[in-house]
Amino acid sequence: MTDLSPAPAFDDEKLETWAALATLLEWLPAALDSQMQRDSDLTHFEYGIMFALSDAADCTLRMSTLATYSNSSLSRLSRAVARLETKNWVCRVPDPSDGRYTLASLTDGGREKVEQATPGHVDLVSRLVFDTLTPTQTRQLHNISLRITSAIRAEGGWQP
Amino acid sequence: MTDLSPAPAFDDEKLETWAALATLLEWLPAALDSQMQRDSDLTHFEYGIMFALSDAADCTLRMSTLATYSNSSLSRLSRAVARLETKNWVCRVPDPSDGRYTLASLTDGGREKVEQATPGHVDLVSRLVFDTLTPTQTRQLHNISLRITSAIRAEGGWQP
DNA sequence: CAGCTTTACTTGCTTGGGAAAGTTAAACGG
DNA sequence: CCGTTTAACTTTCCCAAGCAAGTAAAGCTG
């Protein structure tokens, strides 16, 4: 939705800003996904799951915690983890202390995979975002992002 | 991927900025889609198609032009337009001057639909983005978005 | 302690998108 | 002017995601 979208009520400045933001919203995730797919045969979402696990104590988290961290529904997470399980990068066991919980852990192979995939990802984010912005702009982007996400949260009911 | 993602090589400031941006990247499109779906039973993408048509001469564009405007593959567009056609909001005819092109046009019903859907969409973008930013921040966001999208374009081969 | 409720997932169904093969129409080369 | 390319779609196949229904373990209630 690059340069179309809601003209009617916006003045020129807002319209151009919205067009630029809409392009960013579409292209940046696509760029990240595409690099991850190409270099590591993972979706960005799957990488996020494995990265979160690699950062946790014992490389283990409850599915519900992981769902929060990865900003996804339990259903989406369940399938993604199932995929990762077939590749032997993650395994699931019922929590011994409460059988309703499921614990997901990275395997050794999974740890390797994350370590292999991370540098390329960090590089790309650096190139696309931080290297193209001045330190001042980076701070501005930080503030702006926080403001908009707060507004979304305030708007109500639909962060997963 | 709210607050996980690539820690390793980023300092704290970059990490927090990236976390905030990643959240924005996930939530803002979801918020827009969700409003559009709820109020008008359209995806944001379908709305974009119809909006682009409503803005064109005779409410008509070639499929390939429309694909560029809506930043999508021809395949995705073809299906989306097929869906809109079954609801009688859009119709397709071969271009009489060159049978390889297909012309997509809004029907009268489609025009009405766009007019009905637009105000709510504009409102939401206003509330989530422009009302939460100062005029200075709006200009900053404009510049920042342009810089990042240029970097993506420069990075090469994968805007559709 | 038997039954209802709640919590934490998982699974079946349907839908949308990407990749690649198929189709039809112009263009070009000999 | 006939055969091959190329362009512009369209369609088929497969996978991922949302929704809603299903399941199993805890907890609570009378």
If you compute it from the alpha carbons, what radius of gyration of chain A comes out, rounded to the nearest whole angstrom?
Answer: 19 Å
Q: Estimate what percentage of residues of chain A fall within beta strands.
A: 5-15%
- Treating each run of at least 4 consecutive H or I residues as one helix, how many helices of chain A? 6
Largest sheet of chain A: 3 strands, antiparallel
Oligomeric organization of the protein chains: homodimer
- Given as residue ranges, the uncertain stretches of chain A (5+ residues, pLDDT < 50) are none
Label the structural class of chain A.
mainly alpha
Mean pLDDT of chain A: 91
Question: Main traits of this protein?
Answer:
mainly alpha; three-stranded antiparallel sheet; 3 strands; homodimer; DNA-binding; 160 residues
Short characterization:
By secondary structure, chain A is mainly alpha-helical.
What can you tell me about this protein's structure?
Two copies of one chain form a homodimer. Chain A is mostly helical and 160 residues long. Chain A is built from six helices and three strands. Chain A has helices at 12-40, 44-54, 63-69, 74-86, 108-130, 135-155, and strands at 60-62, 90-94, 102-106. Chain A has a three-stranded antiparallel beta sheet with strand order 1-3-2. In chain A, helix 1 runs antiparallel to helix 5 and helix 2 (44-54) crosses helix 5 (108-130). Chain A is globular, with a radius of gyration of 19 Å. The interface between A and B is large, with 69 and 69 residues. Chain A binds a DNA duplex (30 and 30 nucleotides) through residues 43, 45, 62-64, 72-80, 82-83, 94, 98-102.
